[in-house]
C-alpha cells in the first residue's frame, strides 16, 4: 500500500516535537530520535519546535499555540498513555496510538494476555511481583519455563533491565536487576531462532505492514549498547521467503489491531528455528527514530524516505475522542 504523501506542511500548523522526558530512555529521545524528527520536519517546511516535558510544563503547549505534537518520547511518560492523556485534556492532536492502546502496549504482561486471548502466539511466561522475590521462588521458574530464560521489567523498553539467564544460579540476580526498574518482573520462555521486527502504519482495516527486518547482533545480544551505540549489529531486509514475509506481516497486523493501535507501531518477534513458527514479543507504539532505528530502515526499503515518514506520521496526529465520533 502506498502512503498519500500529498501533504501541505503549512496546513499542519505549529508543531511541538516532544523529546527527552524523564524515562530511562531520555538520552536516546533527547539526543537522537527527537532531533532527527525535528530536522526532518523543518526540512519539509513544517513550523516545528523542540519541547522537553521534563523541563517545561505541558500546559505551555496550549498557551504557546501549538496545533499538534509529534511524540518522539520513549519509555514511561512518553509511550505509556500518560502524555497522551494530558494531550487529550489539552485538546492537542498527537502522533501514534491513543491513551488505552499506548498504556496496554507499554505493559508487556497485559499485551501478552490480550494476544493469548485472541489466539496469537507469544512465549510462555511467569509474572513475579517485587514482594514475591526470594531465592526459593526464583529457583522454581526454570523448571516451569526451561532454560535459557529472559527476565525483563515489563514496563520498560530498549532492553533496559533485561537479562538472559543461562542457569539456575543467575536467576536471582536477573530478577533483582529487573526489580530495580519495575514493581513486576516478567520471566519469559526463550525462543531459539532469529529476532525479527516489523513496523505497521495506519489504523484498523486500512493499516498495513512494512517489510520485516532481521536483527543479527554481536554475540546474539541485542542490548541497549548494541541497539543504539554500535555499528556491529546487522539489519537485514528481505531475508524471508515470500510466504514467510506474508505470514509475519499478517500476524503483526493482527497483533497491532488486537491492541487498538493507530498511526504507527513496531512489533518485535522471534522466529523459532526448529519449525519456523513466529512468536510475538512486544509492540512498540513510539518506536525509535535514530540513525540505527528499524522503522525508518523498513520504510526506506518500501520506498518511503525518513522525511516523508515523519511528515506523514505528523499528518495523522489526532485525538481519541475525534476517533470515537468518526
TrEMBL record:
Task: Kindly give the SUPFAM superfamilies that the UniProt entry links to this protein.
Answer: Glutathione synthetase ATP-binding domain-like (SSF56059), PreATP-grasp domain (SSF52440)
Where is it located? Cytoplasm
| Pathway in which the depicted protein is active | Cell wall biogenesis; peptidoglycan biosynthesis
Q: Which HAMAP family match?
A: Dala_Dala_lig
Needed co-factor(s):
Mn(2+); Mg(2+)
Which InterPro entries does the record cross-reference, listed alphabetically?
Answer: ATP-grasp, ATP_grasp_subdomain_1, D-Ala_lig_Van_CS, D_ala_D_ala, Dala_Dala_lig_C, Dala_Dala_lig_N, PreATP-grasp_dom_sf
Write the record's keywords in alphabetical order, separated by commas: ATP-binding, Cell shape, Cell wall biogenesis/degradation, Cytoplasm, Ligase, Nucleotide-binding, Peptidoglycan synthesis
Question: What NCBIfam families does the record tag this protein with?
Answer: D_ala_D_alaTIGR, PRK01372.1
Name the catalysed reactions. Answer: 2 D-alanine + ATP = D-alanyl-D-alanine + ADP + phosphate + H(+)
- Main location, first listed in the record: cytoplasm
Q: Gene encoding it?
A: ddl
- Report the top EC class in one word: ligase
What protein name does the entry list? D-alanine--D-alanine ligase
E.C. number: 6.3.2.4
* Annotated organism of origin: Roseateles koreensis
Under PROSITE patterns, the record lists: ATP_GRASP, DALA_DALA_LIGASE_1, DALA_DALA_LIGASE_2
| Location of the ATP-grasp domain | 112-315
Keyword Cytoplasm set for record: yes
One Gene Ontology molecular-function label: ligase activity
What the record says about family reads: Belongs to the D-alanine--D-alanine ligase family.
Does the record's keyword annotation contain Cell wall biogenesis/degradation? Answer: yes
According to its UniProt entry, what is the function of this protein? Cell wall formation.
Amino acid at each position: 500500500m502506498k502512503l498519500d504523501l500529498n501533504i501541505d506542511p503549512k496546513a499542519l500548523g505549529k508543531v511541538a516535537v516532544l523529546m527527552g522526558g524523564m524515562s530511562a530512555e531520555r538520552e536516546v529521545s533527547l539526543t537522537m530520535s527527537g532531533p532527527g524528527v525535528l530536522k526532518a520536519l523543518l526540512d519539509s517546511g513544517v513550523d516545528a519546535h523542540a519541547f522537553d516535558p521534563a523541563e517545561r510544563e505541558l500546559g505551555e503547549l496550549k498557551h504557546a499555540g501549538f496545533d499538534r505534537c509529534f511524540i518522539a518520547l520513549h519509555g514511561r511518560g512518553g509511550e505509556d498513555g500518560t502524555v497522551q492523556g494530558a494531550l487529550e485534556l489539552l485538546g492537542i492532536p498527537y502522533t501514534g496510538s491513543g491513551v488505552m492502546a499506548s498504556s496496554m502496549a507499554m505493559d508487556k504482561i497485559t499485551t501478552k494476555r490480550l494476544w493469548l486471548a485472541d489466539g496469537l502466539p507469544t512465549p510462555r511466561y511467569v509474572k513475579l511481583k517485587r514482594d514475591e522475590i526470594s531465592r526459593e521462588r526464583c529457583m522454581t521458574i526454570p523448571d516451569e519455563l526451561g532454560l535459557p530464560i529472559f527476565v525483563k521489567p515489563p514496563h520498560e523498553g530498549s532492553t533496559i533491565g533485561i537479562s538472559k539467564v543461562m542457569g539456575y544460579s543467575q536467576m536471582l540476580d536477573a530478577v533483582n536487576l529487573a526489580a530495580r526498574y519495575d514493581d513486576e518482573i516478567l520471566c519469559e520462555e526463550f525462543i531459539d531462532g532469529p529476532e525479527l521486527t516489523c513496523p505497521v502504519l495506519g489504523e484498523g482495516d486500512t493499516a498495513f505492514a512494512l517489510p520485516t527486518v532481521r536483527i543479527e547482533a554481536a554475540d546474539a545480544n541485542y542490548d541497549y549498547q548494541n541497539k543504539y551505540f554500535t555499528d556491529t549489529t546487522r539489519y537485514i531486509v528481505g531475508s524471508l521467503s515470500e510466504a514467510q514475509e506474508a505470514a509475519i506481516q499478517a500476524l503483526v497486523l493482527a497483533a497491532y489491531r488486537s491492541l487498538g493501535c493507530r498511526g504507527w507501531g513496531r512489533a518485535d518477534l522471534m522466529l523459532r528455528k526448529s519449525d519456523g513458527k513466529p512468536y510475538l514479543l512486544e509492540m512498540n507504539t513510539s518506536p525509535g527514530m535514530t540513525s540505527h532505528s528499524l522503522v525508518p530502515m523498513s520504510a526506506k526499503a518500501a520506498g518511503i524516505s525518513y522525511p516523508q515518514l515523519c511528515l506523514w506520521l505528523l499528518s495523522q496526529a489526532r485525538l481519541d475522542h475525534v476517533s470515537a465520533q468518526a
